[in-house]
Amino acid sequence: MTIPESPQDWQTLASQKRAALTALIPPSWTLSPTLLDSLNPKGSALSIPASSGIFTARELLITTSYDATALLTGLQSRYLSAEEVVTAFCKRAAVAHQCVNCLTEIMFEEAIARAREVDKKREAGEEVGRLAGLPVSLKDSFNITGTKTTIGYVSYASNPPASADSALITLLRREGAIFYCKTNLPQTMMTADSHNNLFGRTLNPNNLSLTAGGSTGGEGALLRMCGSVLGIATDIAGSIRIPALCNGVAGFKPTAGRIPFAGKVPPARLGSPSPIAPVIGPLGRSIRDFELFMKTVIDAEPWDVDPNVLAVPWRKVEPVTRPLRFGLIRGHPKRPLHPPVARTLHTAAMSLKKAGHEMVLLDDRIPDLWECAVLAWKFFLLDPQKTPAKFVQASGEPWVPSITTAKFPELKGWEASLDELFDMNVERAKIVARYHDIVIENRLDAIIMPGNQSTAPPHDTYGVAPYTVLANLLNYPAGILPFLTANRRLDQPFMNQVVEYVPPYNPELFEGMPGAVQILGKPMKDEETIEILKVVESVLKKATEEPVKD
Amino acid sequence: MTIPESPQDWQTLASQKRAALTALIPPSWTLSPTLLDSLNPKGSALSIPASSGIFTARELLITTSYDATALLTGLQSRYLSAEEVVTAFCKRAAVAHQCVNCLTEIMFEEAIARAREVDKKREAGEEVGRLAGLPVSLKDSFNITGTKTTIGYVSYASNPPASADSALITLLRREGAIFYCKTNLPQTMMTADSHNNLFGRTLNPNNLSLTAGGSTGGEGALLRMCGSVLGIATDIAGSIRIPALCNGVAGFKPTAGRIPFAGKVPPARLGSPSPIAPVIGPLGRSIRDFELFMKTVIDAEPWDVDPNVLAVPWRKVEPVTRPLRFGLIRGHPKRPLHPPVARTLHTAAMSLKKAGHEMVLLDDRIPDLWECAVLAWKFFLLDPQKTPAKFVQASGEPWVPSITTAKFPELKGWEASLDELFDMNVERAKIVARYHDIVIENRLDAIIMPGNQSTAPPHDTYGVAPYTVLANLLNYPAGILPFLTANRRLDQPFMNQVVEYVPPYNPELFEGMPGAVQILGKPMKDEETIEILKVVESVLKKATEEPVKD
């Protein structure tokens, strides 16, 4: 890439970066202008890969019909070659990018070369690692040696490529994972629209006029386009789970301190005294893949590569065979659930009850959800230097529109102080203690709640994230499972005429959009949470196939 | 206790509190004035119990010849009764208190009644718990239902008795532990002299003119007088380890978050954003007792009673049979090791080498120890409201003298700010990362270093604690093992004529005072650290019996 004549010209920098990215897509993987033109800006892009003529039937099968665990079985048995698997996903990621603008860095060539090496090693009977040949996609904030990490700041575009891998990448690479692309995120990473001035906006594959969510939105959209089978995301307020629920894929945010965070590029100032730590977790197709991810990383003793990882082995826990007790949270009056979300949650709870599990209604017992979210947001606003603004201003780029919508009106003009930080910590401790008591007193195994009040809303209208940030404030592990889709006829009975839906509820617009439920487990009990998620996954799968009558 | 006529009269409040405490010692356990007068204010109190005529031979044996594990074996086999064990320790605690002023609350009657219950239950074949009949002493800051928790603030003297047990007490009680006294600590808990205006000053049983250390100094002195076999302490800068090394007993500070801290009375403002958390740990006679304590507490699933405990089971690890690799830290020029401390450390290192273990000298590779301590102290001074001063001023009591000595001159006039807190966290992260790298690169199992530059110094001269606070800053588990005693003849070769010893080195004064070494393990590897401490304990025991020639 050439250095632009004027470093002030952020538009030039950005267009050069985008052009360089597109140039890494082989011409034979380029969609025809006719096909691209056929994309309805208010419609879906999901059918494009199959109709593009670019994929073989086997490539379509490889990219759509397996989870990571099954792909690895195919690779281990040599029914599949790493080269064909990685090539198929590179191709599909390229096509996804042309439809929804989800990529930030492309490493297709290196990835396919690595895949060939894995195939050779396997053929020679050499040790290849637990994830050998598995294509893994990454949020842009991870460092990959030799690749840039701009995290969407135009001012970062002229930074040199990373000289070392992030700690997690080192571990996954050692196990044979193959990195082939990095994905888009929001300016500052603190909005739920994966939109920045360097790469532009990622669109939702289900409906291009709706948000792909954020901050790991590029990953969410790529997964939904089947351009990836396992994506690595991060979450401090919902950034794993929001793209999962917006796009209709699964996501898992572990307890903080279990997956190594070292060596990532931060969007804000280091050293925050906030008790809410960012967490890395997977986006994908199945809970067993999340277990594979967690177990593989933790078995690799990540505390040896990152001093902030808790030296706590992954425990083997038995699959759940007893009835589970779920606490049920149905929402907050400031953000009433849109009818499709209410129906999804209701149907999930009914299906779990039908399967023998118990529900304990928590709405009236929990600390005010909205106030919890306001408190969490205060922790995100501690930096007196407002460092993210400096990163933005350095290039002259403007703020993206969603920045102004992802704010609490309560915090307008609020400035943090060390004195108030003590009180905030006390307030948080009370909330944590209250949830702890509720869980213990009611012998709860998990909490089921919405991940958001709506499915993916129109661009720049997602706003704040009270339903996801709760698990960050509490440091509880949390998963999103996709379930059902918006259906105006079925959703109609869940319509409440007297509430104000924020963002507005528009049945036509949301028709067919994915639904989801959120499950919170107990802190440090990621192992048990994964088993509980497997139970819910199985119950919801059955409920999708044989709808419950209520 | 009656309410004093003027609540401003702190002296009256304090003398009433002390009189009420003394009144709980049965007359038959009171030392004769002749014996008390015979105590040399610059001499030892260690021989008093045996010469007091108050104890039977069996009581002397019970209080001196067992560790907690052995006592429990005796209790389980019914060779010992809980009643006689608890009575013996109550008696000895009473005598210790009369010599060194170590107690703050006395629960002898309730304790002996509980012991009788344990005996009855055991006789009836009922379940009695893992610690049934074991007397356990406590730092004053723990809450025991029905007993006051004043933590040495005169202003707390009129607080009502605790209405609930601290979380840890609940768990230990469930296992049959018997609480019989609470022990003295410093005003604010932030000095190394266990001296406050409510209870006065605890003296060092080895030499009454020297400090008993702090902040768990009452516990340290009680242990050394054999008035307890297992004491529960807390540590944020060395408060478990300083009394251990001052008095000559063993102590263990675990990793933060493993032992439940909930329901204690804090000496300062809640909600501090400091990354250095206070930690509970045991003082005692053997490492196997510390293992018993850790395993018993963690097996009781303390995360169910305290949301701040990490839900991480106690792991069974194998005893160490291979040669260990120790990093050796020999001190900092600002606080050169007194000759007895230098000789103790040198002899310990040589003994470990002789036993086949390896030493890697770290002095020139580590971040500046003094600067690390200054940083840690900044974290202790974050509260803009200076809450401990309010607790002191509330009663009109003055500051105790050691408060002024336990300060870094570098921090005179320093005021914390939220902005600087970010930078402090970054600085701490660098230090943590550097130690992590040193440990990994050198394949270290543990670090061996002094716990302080001197043995117990004269009252009010302990000053700051750079050698203990390091483990708090890093959140590494750390143990103190007593080893050797000051011996001017043997120490002489370790004398350095060109350094300035702080506090001054006075060979006559320190003669016979206990030595100690400090061992740091890896964070969250408390299980492995205990096994390493067992190895060191065994090597040092052998070295005491058969001195190494160097």
TrEMBL record, chains A, B:
Pfam families in the cross-refs: Amidase
Active site: K139, S215, S239
GO MF terms, alphabetically ordered: hydrolase activity
UniProtKB keywords: Hydrolase
Residues involved in substrate binding: M189, S215, I236, A237, G238, S239
UniProt entry tagged with the keyword Phosphoprotein: no
Domain (Amidase) ranges: 84-529
SUPFAM superfamilies, per database record: Amidase signature (AS) enzymes (SSF75304)
UniProt keyword Hydrolase present: yes
Family per record: Belongs to the amidase family.
Protein name: Amidase
Organism annotation: Sporormia fimetaria CBS 119925
